[in-house]
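Quick bug: Ferrochelatase output formatted oddly.
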Amino acid sequence: MKKLALAAAMSVAATSAFAGGMAEPAPVMEPAVVVEETQSSSGGIVVPLLLLAVVAAVVAD
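Here's what came back:
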């Protein structure tokens, strides 16, 4: 009797799990491309050149 009740409960659970049918697959989204503008290469050299000019001016005096 317990096996019959267990089988009935399992069949009810299985039919409710498949009651909705197959779900549509989620749409595949393409990854967004991020374009980032780069700074000019001279931007990183200005500060060291100014520092070198200041040091050269101090040493010259």
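Actually, after a second look the formatting is fine. The longest helix spans residues 2-17. Closing.
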